Amino acid sequence: MSVVHQLSVGWLLDHLSFINKASYQLCPSCQCPAPSASHVAPVSSTPSTEDIVSPSTVDTTYSTGAAVERTGAKLKQKFVFREEFFHVFKPHIVSASEQKPQQESSDAGAREGKDSGNGTEQHEGAKNSDGDSFASARKKHKRKCSVFNQGELDALEYHTKIRGLILEGARCLIKEGLKSGFLHPISAKQSSIKNVVTGHVGCEMAELCEMAKRFPSVNENDHRSSQIIDEETAIPEQDLLSCVTENNTDYAKIINLMGQKYLVPPKSSFLLSDISCMQPLLNYKNKYDVIVIDPPWQNKSVKRSNRYRYSHLSSWQIKQIPIPSLAAPNCLVVTWVTNRQKHLRFVKDELYPYWSVNTLAEWHWVKITRSGEFVFPLDSSHKKPYEVLVLGRVQGSIDLPLRKSDVEVLPIPDHKLIVSIPCTLHSHKPPLTEILTEYIKPDAECLELFARCLQPGWTSWGNEVLKFQHIDYFIALHNENEVLL
What we know:
It is built from 14 helices and 22 strands. By secondary structure, it is an alpha/beta fold. A hairpin with a 2-residue loop joins strand 1 (3-7) and strand 2.
């Protein structure tokens, strides 16, 4: 179970457990070599097992080499997601109270250095005209008396409104996690470990989607809407981009894309394309009962940085996503929103009404360390330790308890918290599958838009849909008790 604890305020999740619960075990007929050490994504050194509390223990041997053979027999091969991507042992930045003395001393040092190292600066000001001196003084005054812009004021107002909910709710869930041992104080060795930073892994899927627009056009009537993965195979890029790919088996499959290997979990399907090529998804299944959306919101700070390799969509482009054509009656729509109030207002006041979706609730994902601290100070003006989810249902449906197959579907509650240790890989959101179970029918068809990974039982779409399925994010695990003859 990825839900470690459930209280009235929300859930404490184990994201890593959810990924590995998918059972990335290869079919005996398609065993393949695991990623060799030379091809593994660069990661920090893994702590010794005595420093880590694992939720479960299995009799295994770990390998980053080829599948092991013993007197003609192969060990059963399974992959697990790299645990070090969840080694968040301490906050990313310290609290304001710890920061202040250090900041004041560094500011004083900077001022002192400036005065001593650039002593002519004040004299230069005296040489200028009165107008220049006034302009210079006005600029200095602006720097000293920073004024919040409207967006910052709106964010502060919203934070003030939800702060108590976040603080008290997270405290209750963290207390349960510490009590059960899922969360725990960190050792001296763990406190010295830095978060894992990976180099670029996999092929440029977004660029591939752009290239696909120049492929010869496919006749919709003659082309299949989906394809099934049979064995480990190199699927032609044109086929991968022009129809939904399915793994209908109970085993994980490996596909090769532009010379790179990606793991596809059991009972999952995906379409690799951008927003201009969604027709195969519309042709694939009738309608979806759950649609989770993680739009690439425009962000000035990310825009200025070359660290993240994905494009952003304008509000107008996000509105063009064909939710009305994809959503079944009473469809639950969940949208991830950044902490910019502009985006939150857009979703609630413009986007959902445009899609004929009634807003029902706001939930918050709260990010914590392994020891139960917020990853950022709660009142940080730089970054908050939480993100927002907006939940709604397609209009024309009533959000009341329904019954199907004697399973009750509950109404959506407001102000719930999802507390978890975040993955250090950028924008790898926590899973919502087990959380949403109470609020959807048991045989629900589920879709994730702008996905970067795959989930069993879900259809996933996006121009980086396989990103976190790259084999270098996993390690091979061989169970010595199960030998394939």
